Every structure is written in C-alpha cells, then in structure tokens.
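Q: Could you write out the predicted structure for this multi-component system? I'm mainly interested in how the pieces pack against one another.
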Amino acid sequence: MPPPPPSFEALAASTSAPPASLAPFPVDAVRGRFPSLARAGPFIYFDNAAGAQAPREVLARVAGHLLDFNVQRGGRYPKSVEVDRVIAAARGRVAMLLGADDPAEVAFGMNATTFIRLVSLALGQTLQAPRDEIIVTDLDHHANISTWLELAKTGARISWWRTRDDHRLHVEDLVPLLSERTRLVACTVVSHALGSRVDVAAVARAAHAVGAEVFLDCVHYTPHASIDVKAWDCDYLVCSGYKAFAPHMGFLWGKRGALERLPTFREEFIPDAPPDKIEAGTFVYENVAGMAAAVDYLDTLGGELDPTAATARARILAAMAGIEAHERDLSRAMLAVLASVGAEVYGVAEPAAVHRRVPTFCFNLPGVEPAVVAQGLAAADIGARDGHMYAPRLMERLGLSMDKGAVRASLVHYNTLGEIDRFAQALGALAK
Ligand SMILES: Cc1ncc(COP(=O)(O)O)c(C=O)c1O
C-alpha cells in the first residue's frame, strides 16, 4: 500500500517558508507587468476577490485575437484553423495549470455558476435512492449551494457540512455525514468571503471511501496557490478566469470517466464526449485565449523565481510558491492592522496560522456600518467591498445581516506592504 499523502496542515505549513532555491518575490517588477496598476495611479485594488487585474500578455492576446482571428471555429480557411489551434492550446495550458494530464477533461464556458448548474442539472438526473444525497457547506459562495439545493425539488436529500466557531470547515465533521446515500460533496477550496482554506484532499478521501464524488469550487483559490487535481483526487473542479488574471470566462475540469457519464444537454450533432458534450454553444474565444496567456504569465514568473524549473508545470509550481510566500507576508501585515483598530475578523485571525488562509479579509469595525467603512476606504482611493459576499448561509452563521454583511478587503500577489500602510491609515481614521 502506498503511504497516505501528507495532511493538509503538514503541506500548508511546509510551504510557509518559500523553498530556499526561490528568488525573493519581485513585487515591483510584477506590478510593472500589470498596465492597469500604473494607469490607476494612487488607487489601491483591494477588491480582487471580485476580479483581479490582467497582465500585459493577457491584454495583448485578447486584443490580438479580436484583431486577427475574430471568426468561428471549424472552417477550412487559415484564420478559422488558427482559432481551433488557439482553443486546443488553451486547453493544454489550463490542464497543465490544474495538474491534469488530459486536455479533453477541460471545458470552456461563460463562468463558474453556469458550469455548476450544468453539472447539477446532469447529475440530478442520475440521483436514485439509495444514493440520493448531496452535501453542501455553509462556507461556500451561494453559486455552489443554491444550484445543488435546487435538486431537492426533484427528490435529492440535502445535508449540511457546517463551519465550526473558528469559521473553518473541519473534515472530522464531514465524516459522520457521509454514508452509502451520499452521491456528492460540493465544497469550496478556499472561502471567497473569509479566505479560510479547506483540506480538499482529505474531503475527497473521505467521500470516496463511501463511493461519493467531490465537486470543488476553485474559483477563489486559483490566483493564490497551486492546484493539483491528481493529488487532490477530486472528481470535478470549476474556476473563473477573471479572478485569475484573465478575462471573464469559466472552465470546468472533470475526471474523464465522470464527464463521460454525465447526461448533459447537447445538440445531436455534437460528439457525446468531453469536452464537446460539456460546451453548449459558442464560448468567448478571445477570453479563452486570454486565459491561456494568464497561464503563460505564471509560467514566466515561475521561471524567473526558479531558473532551475525545467518544465512548465515546475515553473507554475514555483510561481505559486513565490505568490503564496508573498501573500503570507501580506496576510500577517493585514492581521496586525485589523487587530490594531479593534476589528472583528471573521475567519483565521492568528498571525501564526496564515497558512490556513489566503489574504482575503472579512471584518467589521465595532460601531461602524460596513457600508460606511467601504465608503470611507473608497474616499481614500481604496477599492474594497461591503455586503453579503453572495454568501447568505455564511452571513447567517456569522450572525450578520444580509443587508449589511461585513467589509471585505481581498489582496493578491501584486499588492504591497506599502498599500497595507495606506489601508491602515484610512481604516484607523474610520475606527471609533
Ligand atoms: C468562490 C466562488 N464561487 C463561485 C463564484 C461565481 O463565479 P462566476 O461569477 O464565475 O459565476 C464566485 C464569484 O465570485 C466565487 O468567488
């Protein structure tokens, strides 16, 4: 028997210091690759969870596609042949980003929500007693809850895997929920609202032990750390380009067998095989080209951080290790600022535990409405967000109202400690 894979805690903690071979994170040079950052002048992008900026190669690839190849696939003329090539290449690049071997397991589409709905509609048709249960969580974005709750109308049994008082999902609480009834566990890889990470490899091990499948919402995780669908052993995984330095588009990965079994809608002339059976109609080719360029950006960054990385996958891993290390510095600084103004932080708040989170911070200032805080930050040229974060179940769990919610400041690797200093000043002026 192969030894069990290392625990999430061991893996996460082991990356708390970047590998010695990795160059220091060149945040100024990185920022230079994002033209929108310079164009924004003093404005600070702290709302990256709602969409990150795109590096130069992404802008160039999208514009180049529209300029020279804005035609339909499947024609015999060179421009159309080129679009086919671009899409095939993008599938390969995204598969590599995910750690998948088979590009046909990657489907492109409009966004994450429509993919979750597509899978839930298809999977709903396969639900049969005694295997008719879907487990959802109270940490997830509503896109990965409501789509599954919908299946209750046609007889699915829904069970809830709930967060503990530390605002984290613990796999020990999932295990007793699992049984031969469980068809699927739908959960996030990291909370888009709180930034807390979930041990998804352990989720898959527990779910598979009872013959259930796992659907992972990887939308918020993608810009922050490396994805490995083989090590995680999930069955489906969904991402959105606009959080990952690419334009608006989405992609779904699934194990080939799982995708083959899904009874999806397709016109009769569409092949009954992935990816075609998962891709209804025309998707936005220029944005798929842009997504491939975002992977190229990470590939280049990884090569600079670790010149010994010999393969594209090794360079992606180096890029994400460098990003994670820089983001942990940002997290520690943000937690110190939030503590200094007496903010209530929802989610992981101990500086020693930043490996359990990404730099997405949900908080409230005592006695100050979230809208007033977000407005005050906006007046200081800082883009953050207030509200329910599309997570009504989580708001309820945190004792927050849907109309007010909380404030969220969400950082990515191009953010700096200097920006956090300005955030600290602005927040300090708003605190009572
Ligand atoms: C974790 C998570 N899941 C799902 C979604 C929905 O993604 P999309 O807008 O691509 O449908 C979001 C959007 O912010 C998200 O953060």
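A: Regarding packing and overall arrangement: The chain has two domains: 8-54+324-430, 58-295.
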